[in-house]
Each structure stands twice: as structure tokens, then as C-alpha cells.
Amino acid sequence: MATQDELKKQVGYKAVDDYVKSGMVVGLGTGSTAYFAVERVGMLLKAGTLKDIVAVPTSLRTKEQAESLSIPLGTLDTHPAIDVAIDGADAVDPGLNLVKGGGGAMLREKMVEVCAKTFVVIVDESKLCPALGPSFPVPVEIVPFCHAHTMRQIAQLPALEGCTPVLRLGNVSNNKVDGDSPAVTDNGNFVVDLHFSSPIKDLGAAAEQLKGSVGVVDHGLFIGMSRVCIIAGAAGITVKNL
Fold this sequence. Notes:
- The protein is of the alpha/beta class.
- It contains six helices and 13 strands.
- Strand 1 (25-28), helix 2 and strand 2 form a beta-alpha-beta unit.
- The longest helix has 16 residues, at 4-19.
- The protein is globular and about 55 Å long.
- The two termini are 29 Å apart.
């Protein structure tokens, strides 16, 4: 039986093989699954199978990995139109709405992926859920200034009723407590993880209220952004299209 890393590698490679063509501008995601997609782009460039690729990374970690593989890089400033973006997710509902940001890169991921003509989500089947909320905490990037105040404001938002905001400590690339200091994103901000015991009833309202809160930079709800998800499981790889 395939390990979780083997499943991640399968979907990462398949996404690149099926959706990335020579001459494209490619958004490179962040995290343990997206890592394999970046690896595959580098592999195919080195082999000459892919040519004239420009990649736009969504984090410093991904930028460093891409540079180590000699993948040509750009930014949204130089390449605002992304042909395809490939990234993992922490939770995926039946409508391909996502929770992202377990790795702390949701702002840059969203900035790149909202510009993509095609956003391909790659996950193993453990990330599938009937509704967003309980299966994985929703990360929110907030400014450090008066962060406790911002956390209280978030907890009072009507569409987020019942959530418990928890300041992420230690390493920003996971939501485990592995340090004493607040985790800091690539943008110099803090991350609050919103824990839910029941499904979020209105994702659109939750996203809108979070984004409209002063002190909030952005959040890990990716609503209506993807129409294709490649899923690896015990029975093999499946592709869900909307």
C-alpha cells in the first residue's frame, strides 16, 4: 500500500504531466504535496521535455526549491497572467472549496492562484471532507499590531460563530505548537488558526466577513477558485472536474 508521501508524489507528477506545457507561465504552490509538482517541473525542464517555462512561486520555500532545480522564475509584477497553478490543500469539500494555509503561505498562494486560468488542486484522499470547518482549522493571516484584539474581533463575526481562534506558535509551516513565539509568515505577519466543531454554514459570508475585518490581511478559505482536483487514494488516482 502506498505511503502518504508516495500518494502526494503521484498527484504532483500527474498534475504537471497533464496540465503543464512548454511556453506556459506556471504558479508553483507551497507545501508537502506541491513540493512534488515543483520537483516534476524541474525534472522535465532538465530532460528537455518542457521548454520556455516561467514559474511564479508562492513562498520563499518554493522559490528556493525552484532555484535549486534551475527553474526560471518570475513574479506577478512581470507575469500577471498565469496559465496554470498547481497546489495542495488542507481540506476539500464536494464543491472543490478549499481550506489552505496549513503551511502559512495562503496570502501569496491566493494572489497567484486567483490569477490562474486553471487552478489544479492536488491532494490525497485524507483531505476530502463533507464540509469545511471541523476537518482542518481555517488559517487567517493578521497583522502583528494588537493581534489579540483582532483575534477577539474575528471570534465575534456572525458567520464564524462558534470558532475558537488560536495564535500559531513556532514554525509557520505547520499548525502544531512547536515554539513559544508567534509564527511569522513570509510577509512578516502572524497566523491565527480558527477551530470549528461544526461545519461553516455560509462559506461566502465567512470569507467576506474575514476579509472585511480591519487587521486581517487574508484567510485560507479558497471559494470557487478551482474546477479540477486530482486525488490519490488506495484505489489509485481520480480526477474530479466541476
